[in-house]
Fold these 4 entries.
Entry 1:
Amino acid sequence: MKKFLVALSSAAVALAAAAASAEEPKRGGTLTFSYRIIAGHFNPAIASGTPTGIPGTQLFAALLRFDDQWNPKPYLAESWDISDDGLKVTVKLRDNARFHDGKPITSEDVKFSIETYQQHHPFKPMYAPVKSIDTPDPLTAVFNLSNPHPAILLAFSSQLGVVIPKHVYGNTDNIRQHPQNSQDVVGSGPFKLKEFKPGEYIIMERNEDYFLEGKPYIDRIVYKKIAENTSRVIALEKGDVDLTAFESDAPVLDRLKKNEHLTLTPDGYSAIGPLEWLAFNTKRKPFDDKRVRQAIAYAIDKEFILKVLYGGYAQRSLGPIHPGSVFAPKDVNPYDYDVEKAKALLDEAGYKPDSDGIRIRTTLDYIPAGGTWKRKTEFVKAQLKKVGIDVTIKASADFRAWIKTVSNHEFDMTMDSVFNWGDPVIGVHRTYQSTNIRPGVPWHNTQQFQNAEVDAVMEEAGKELDRDKRAALYGEMQKLVVDEAPIAYLHTSPYHTVFNHERIGNAPVDSIWGVCSPWDEVYIR
Amino acid sequence: MTDRPATAPESGPETVRIERPVVEFLRMYVRNWAAVAGFIVFAAIVFAALFAPVILAVDPFEMVRMHFTPPGHDSYVLGTDNLGRDMLTAIVYGARATLVVGGSAAGLTIVIGLTIGSLAGYYRGWVDEVLMRITEFFQVLPPLLLAMVLVALFEPTLPTVAIAIGVVTWTGVARLARAEFMRIRELEFVKAARSIGSRDRRIIWRVILPNALPPLIVNAALTCGIAILFEAALSFLGLSDPNVMSWGKIIGDNRDYLLDAPWTVTIPGVAIFLTVLAVSLIGDGLNDAFNPRLRER
């Protein structure tokens, strides 16, 4: 078992080891990155989302970083220590770290940053146990917790735990409107903001005073928004773009895969943990009956969705936690495709076929985010018809309309996508806690699932620091949830990072955070 | 065939041939072979749409075989689509949605266009000014974009799509109706009607309208073709009722796989082409049949 009581003496040793590769990284060059969306600002302390996180983690350094095995590594923090009772986390900062404006990074900035997260970031449970932060000296921050918090180290990493300068962002009552969230950003990450044209591009340049010696390697990052799939594909093929991320359309991936200059990889998404599923409104008839929910889970041919709709790029998921997580579900009912079993369960629940062979008439919503969602929805409609469930598909006018419908519980069934965000405390509990039924808020417990046993196990797992004990608790929790089936689990989002391997070395795919982590190891060949 | 009328039972050898207008109209229409062909194709499509469940007692959404079965394989004449649904069934059922949307959108176009155009053309003056400014307002909006906004604003269902298309295509009919009304209201027989004290409503509906109808009917046929294309475009963009199979939807669903399974896109494309062509030919035929100058040729 790996204890969280890690105190690494030398940061440089670890980083040098991580950077070791066959080829010696070169300095210089421009990397062009392209994404569907460009954010309005890059301050990860006040907003979630990858469009903020990708540039945000280049501009702002966080306390920690994680490798691809979920191990915390030093970043701004040189060492850290969790007290035996789990109620005190002490972080030692490195002494050579400076913000882009030359001011040193102190524990006051850490305190200010985490308090900003508590106040303004949408992920409330992430720093909820942090009662207070002491700053005994400029390089030491002590977090006093109300209960042991196993996700705290993960929360210190990537876009969830960046340190923002108090002397810049502390001078306003309304940090959300702070002009330096998007222009003249003062961070401490490997890159500085050079130019931002809203809606079009971001240019970032090397931070010459970066606290990790000799890094970053590249001179400049150009982040270009290309919303249209085909245009982005062509830009990659022509070599105008070196790197893209979150590519998920099977036809796009098929086409890119054929190009010998490009590498496609599903690595780097295990922290984000994107899942796609069919959710039930468990307060509405007939979905208040667990047998109906189970029947529907059985009636859907998951293999067909993976093979045909996602071209083999997505992975099956069996429960609330992403298969890439250390807490991934084991030994849960996989609800393998079984039409007869589905019919038997519906019979048992008292939903017999009428003269037209129909047992239940209901509706199905879906996220209006492109062809694959719609195709999947139509596929499920056809599948459920076979067991006597007549589904009317409801197409939402736009994303906001869908959010409104689902977050206010005005649905029967819906296709949904929810991210795990690294630790179950941050991204999983919210979907099942009976206390987290909050109409109007997207991605809460929209299923209105209430189960005291599940609540209790999650409560315990959320305070347990021992990874193995936690894994056992989440194993139990997932067995309960999968049996109750408030959700029919389908698959992971087939996100892929695509890069031109002839141009780029050390592509940012070798950590759990993928492109949402500092690109200070990346170099141009 | 012009020298023998189709029906003239009482006519003796010396009587002047006077045909009933309907008969004369049909005779004129039949003379145009392209229009007849158009009518036959259209009738076949309508037949397929009406009797779809009888011809093929399958659900068009049912997945019957492996996806992308090529046409002609096994008993699947037109192959299967990206979800393994039978293309033939989809085409036959798709005819329903396509015709319903095309027909009702054209109907709506006529109703709105005729109402606005006839009032503007008959009353002129400020009524004309106001109504024509409204018409121009709709004319300058890009039609496909406006239709997309309307469909996106309300849920994409068959009626919304039909209404959206109707709302963006009526302006042509309005201008045409206005021009006809302006011309006809100055003719002798209208003046005569007015001189005997007929009310406006009677003059508009009973006196002018029947004489203004022929070009409007031709226009309606063409509008029906345009509406079908609009429906296809909206479905292609994903703005269609997901519970109803239509040709545009088949194209939209399969367009990502154009290179792997070209038939999934070309077959509904051909169906749309044939229907719109048929409707246009019918429109042409009607135009000729209504045109008195072509009668004695």
Entry 2:
Amino acid sequence: MELDLKKLELRNVNDKLQNLDRKTNERDFTIINPEGNHAICAGLDKEMNVTIKGHVGYYCAGMNKKATITIEGNVGTGVAENMMSGKVHVKGNASQSAGATAHGGLLIIDGDASSRCGISMKGADIIVKGSVGHMSGFMSQSGNLIVCGDAGEALGDSLYETNIYIKGNVKSLGADCVEKKMDKKHINKLRKFLKDAEIKNHKAESFKRYGSARKLYNFKIDNNY
Amino acid sequence: MCGIVGIYLKNEKLKNSLGSLLSKMLINMGSRGPDSAGFAIYKKEEEEKFKYSICINELNFKDFEERINKHLEAELKKNSDHVILKTSLKPEVMLTILKNHFQDVALVGYGKSIEIFKQVGDPSEVVKKFKLDDYSGSHAIGHTRMATESAITTDGSHPYSTGEDECLVHNGSLSNHNNLRRKLKKDGVNFDSENDTEVAAGYISNNLSNKKNLKETLKDSLKDLDGFYTFITGTKDGFAVLRDEIACKPAVIAETDDYVAIASEFQAMAHLPEVNNAKIFEPEPGVVYSWGN
């Protein structure tokens, strides 16, 4: 079913997708003319496929649960923020705070993501085929952040237990973030992620792994931060 | 919050629609700034005269005209509560006349091509009032304000003039503006409001008058201005953009063969011609971008 945001109110489109008519079996939707609107497809909680044709604004696919949402364009701040499950695929670039606080699900960004990608993520998996900006993975707690390009300043600042895999250069590491050894199990896990995201031009072995040195977990009088 | 917008035309064919393109951008950004709006529009004139953009507020235009005629020879064009005064008098002379005899009006900008209009009220009302749709030109920048630092007044509205044919719009807030204002006052810079952006404008114009170029000045502001900001500075030939290094304040740029546009959010540019085929990117933190300069 095609939903035209030039003709329909955004609120009505979201309402329709959030309250699927159980009497019909319609589970495939295309949204046209998004024109940078905010909060498109926020709060979907059923299995369905939505394709958005064009650029969107803030918080697209926020709080997503179970739905598969593809954006054929760029996304604004906070795409898939607080996602619980499901899949969000951005075919263009993402603005700041992509996948912020996301608990689960998979976020794939074909282009670049700007600053604070995966900030405070709590278990989601984020794959960025391009590069990420500064303070990505800030205070992230669980999950995987995989970047095929470069990372900006202060990567993984104050992070807890997220695994960060970077293929390219890291401008600088944030407080308590260190490079860690790539064991066989990490390579196997990463290989699966790359395969699922259909990334063929990067080998899992060529990535570096970063994680928490766990020195900020407890208060230490010697910490001079 | 606040919304900022700008458009620079690469293709002259679009020059007659500059006003209407900018006006839709401003109206859309009303969601980020409903308190006041303003814009600077650049149009090169045939004759080598100076244009002074003056806000006369409650003043009667006829009275103002009579008073002006006593002091100088000028051509006046009224646009709502603003007047564009065209004269061959140079800024140093004109600014003194205004200071000595016209304390009840506000000079909002001056130069050979710039015209500035700004006023309190909903952006859609403001652009209608100044008939922005009818304007043509080479480039323009604009602002919609959500007041935080200081009161909702014309003085507190953007753009701020930073010198001849130069102006500034700002999304963000500066935390060291009181210190900096004190310092700049010692250097002889005048301020009309308590607004933080006016301090940034004063800082930029002071640096420029000390023979620093715009790129250097903007680079220096990274170390001298403390706070959050995305700046657009309009110049005679184009505009420049700078985001602070934390980059919390948004900006998106869309570039095609015909124009470069910038806005706080993409939705403000969704109506621009061929925008879906434009090169769209976010300016990197701490990097000065400029067009036409």
Entry 3:
Amino acid sequence: MSETAPAPSAGPVAAGDRHISGVPIRLDGVTKRYPGQEQPAVDDVTLEIAAGETVMFVGPSGCGKTTLLKMLNRLIEPTSGRIHLGDEDVTDQDADQLRRRIGYVIQAGGLFPHMTVGTNVGMVPRMLKWDKERTAARIDELLDLVGLDPAVYRDRYPRELSGGQQQRVGVARALAADPPILLMDEPFGAVDPITRQRLQDELLRIQEELGKTIVFVTHDFDEAVKLGDKIVVFDVGARVVQYDTPERILAEPAEDYVADFVGAGATLKQLTLTRVGDVDLVQVTTAVAGSPSAEAVAAARAAGDDFVVVLDARGRPISWPTVAELTRTATVPQTVDERLPVVGLRSTLNDALDTMLAASQGGVVVTGRRDGLAGVMAVETVMAAIQRSRTEAAG
Amino acid sequence: MWEYVTERADLIAFQAVQHVSLVVQCVLLGSLIGVALAVLVYRNPKATALANGMSAVGLTIPAFALLGILLAPFGFGITPAVLAVTFYAALPVLRNAVVGLAGVDRATVESARGIGMTRMATLLRVELPLAWPVILAGVRVSTQMVMGIAAIAAYVLGPGLGGFIFSGLSRLGGANALNSALTGTTAIVLLALVLDLLLVLAGRLTTPRGIRV
């Protein structure tokens, strides 16, 4: 790998001291014509993507956004134009070598069904001739990163996994050789809404840790707003209609076309723009599973809380029994509450509200790095945010 | 009949080994040819159609006719027998290999290419393993079919159990004629069953656990 070093020179870098391992991408007059078609599928696109940014490609189906994405790793060869990754012009490089330096995630992960999860994740390191120990260590590290216990999942086959888990493995495989760039082609399109939201949160968390340059194709504008540092809105022929931050695209759509695409209800879109981490979270009493209930009850009463968040050995929330429930047990129960509403710090208020409604609860547990507890958010906080943005819109 | 068999146990065993050896070798060779042809054609719809047509038409050629044609250039003996048996062995494998390779999910292939696997690596490590159960089903069909065709190859003095059948049929009514034909036929059926069992076993052992049904 010759270019894992950050290239701070290129473009504005989002947050000041954030760790960035990505490189900038520059497209220069990239065009794709298919024989027998009058209009080019991608017509003379010039675009610059800064290192460490997540850029979302949105647009109607058939607008050429996926074609453009696939030209970045040359799964589709451009008819003309140049593609630069970092300082390198990769347009004429060996495509197979190039692709080993670019992570690629597709819908349902695109896992190889005849290989175990571990083998799938280790594919690229093996191609790059890493030694066995290094590959094995990397596989475990990555499974851990995407929230799958290596001991449990390493030797399973993809079909033994849920859709969301397969998608996580797909992300782990793409990250295996620590590529500076990650291309994602509608990766979360085939999973149910709750799982999709979790996967999105996970991606945000991973991206915060790694700072890759991510190009992400989606047809879901809410997803684009939630995940993107920038959004590119495309029209037919991959014409760039607007390329800006989600906030500005929502506030000032460049053309009627964008306004239509963004959709109505822009006030409520603020719910999509505001992150759970941006609002004040409530700190609550916690207890480790298996510890004496009496201590937890005492602590909760002292703090004036009427419930306790139970954490497992790794600090991840697993349930939130009321104080009344705890007084009936000797030790804090180990059971994992499958219906516990959980969102990440980078989840949107919209996600949080969705999760509360789905669980019929008046609040959600918020997790931060490696799924550790960050606090609790009450439904009132969401309501206040809605109220605030309505007032702003009116004033 | 039992007497007939016990008296000739050595000869029957020898011919049975010859028969199985001919079939196994020809099926191996035919499978290699079939898979190789399938690899060449499966990306191209026209070539695929041609290959499918060829295997369909090829299977309708009577074995007798083919052996007769092969007699002219090669004369009597092993060569025409091997050629004919290999020809028939290749056809079901070709057909199944085309179906199997075409049936591999395009998204899986694209993701293999997308993470930087070469064409060849994609074929060897992803496409062929995923198509393997279907290809193996073709090998089983092929083996069963060719067990019978190898018997007909005795007509051109090829090796194997077909000799018993032909010598029996040629002197029907004579002493032991029926016994001879029956022995050849029964032995072929039994061996076919044993080979099929072995192939099923081989399938269990060679199909990756992740795609076993």
Entry 4:
Amino acid sequence: MTDTAQASAVADAKAAPDTMAWDSGLRRLMMIYLPLGCFVLVLLFPFYWMAITSFKPNAELMNYKEHNPFWITSPTLAHIKHLLFDTAYPRWLWTTMLVAIGSTTLSLIASTLAAYAIERLRFRGSPYVGLGIYLAYLVPPSILFIPLATVVVQFGLFDSPLALILVYPTFLVPFCTWLLIGYFKSIPYELEECALVDGATRLQILRRITLPLAVPGLISAGIFSFTLSWNEFIYALAFIQSGANKTVPVAILTELVTGDVYQWGALMAGSLLGSLPVAIFYSLFVDYYVSSLTGAVKE
Amino acid sequence: MSVTTFPSPTLRVRQPNWLVRLFDYKPFLVTMCLAPAIGLLGVFLTYPLGLGLWLAFTDTTIGRKGEFIGLENFQYLLTDSLWWNAVFYSVVYTGIATFGKFALGFWLALLLNNHFPFKSLLRAIILLPWIVPTVLSALAFWWIYDPQFSIISYLLVDVLHWRTTNIDFLGSPWPARFSLIAANIWRGIPFVAISLLAGLQTISPSLYEAAMLDGASAWQRFRYITFPMMMPILAIVMTFSIIFTFTDFQLVYAITRGGPGNSTHLLATLAFQRGIAGGELGEGAAIAVSMIPFLVFATLFSYFGLARRKWQQGEAND
């Protein structure tokens, strides 16, 4: 009893200079927790709605008078079953995974080498190359997709996932390079000098010293690239035509939306399943993700 | 020179001589390191950018090589009411959505900057709208905006009894426009909030202590410390946000595809409709190119308008 009283007295004393007397529980509730609660509610509601729709039987989906739309009375896996066995959904998932992993690997290799050259080899004009790569990030895909479509056709890659693997690095490489330059900067140059004195070659230094120290940066860049390529839409829409080669976001919109009556259950189940891989991936590495996002902005 | 303790030095001695020496020759090494990145960006970014500019001055269609026709595409666009519509809506969309994202995102960042339990968990949850594929969350919004089974209409009509009829979100131009803007704001808040939160955390608490000793009110502390200190980061985040909102494609394509009656076309969706779906590559490229002046203007405006303070001080970037 006395302990708590003392504790609160201490807290009051600490808070005293910055607050007025009534700045306690209620004010905090109204000023912080209430708006925060509203934000979380609004930001998460579409996901809840997506999830609940994908497990609702059609009878409940289309009848709000008898069933409370916010809850399910008899959940069903029919929509997910339809998706997995009656459509090419597993194939789309596989293609998306392939494209995401392929383009992430390619961009990581390209941007690690580029970042190392720019930050550590310090040739003449390296800041300009860095700036050029950064500016490439500001070119939005919406103004590139039409000429890129003709380029893809010229290369004979139209309708092939390989086109996406090669094109996605255009927006992944600038970001990853910028992120990795920041990481390389934080590694003391003395370590490399020691290795040079000991007779290591430049490539050995990169492989044995710089890269192991930059692993957190590589993970951040990898996660970021993976989610960005998983989510990419406009290139995948413009370059892929046959149903089997589509990625999940494009396929759901173009293959599942058919006719006048939308199969909302299946659509939402498809969206849910398509979001899960990135969501799981994200939740495993959330700290890396946040640090790369904020780190890139601070640079 | 060679790596010291390998089991068979005799074998290893000759090889390093020319290959390793080549890789230690700096110009060669730099070229090799830059080649993949520059190659990829050159072939799939710089070249298409130039090609796009060229296509905009030709009458290329799918399957036919075009002729140079000068400014004809642009002259046609200037007389095209659909293009003017798209310009109008792109500007409105970007303006309102950016304002909404930054007002709400800044507020959320300020809220998250307080101390409370489960803060990192909350921060992780809040980013969800941003990492989930836009098209998939757009589909959820499409379902939320359904004319018959909209959950918002249900809430307003059957639960709260504020209205008697369902809202027709996507059936007529202005409601459709605002529905799309709301979805865009929803998607943009997390990015803005988390980026600005990172900025807020770099502001030294001693500034607030000094201001409080001088008797500054909460509003004054925000106005004269938080806001000016946040200017550089606001400028960068806003530049990015404006560029990617103005050129947005996915949300509109997924929810309305430019309808009803072409009222919600953004320049990007119009370019897609004409260029890829309609096959008029030249005209589509011209529409895409017509975005560039707006982008350059918006970038310069937000960057120099907001970052003026840092720029005037002549601070070297870190």
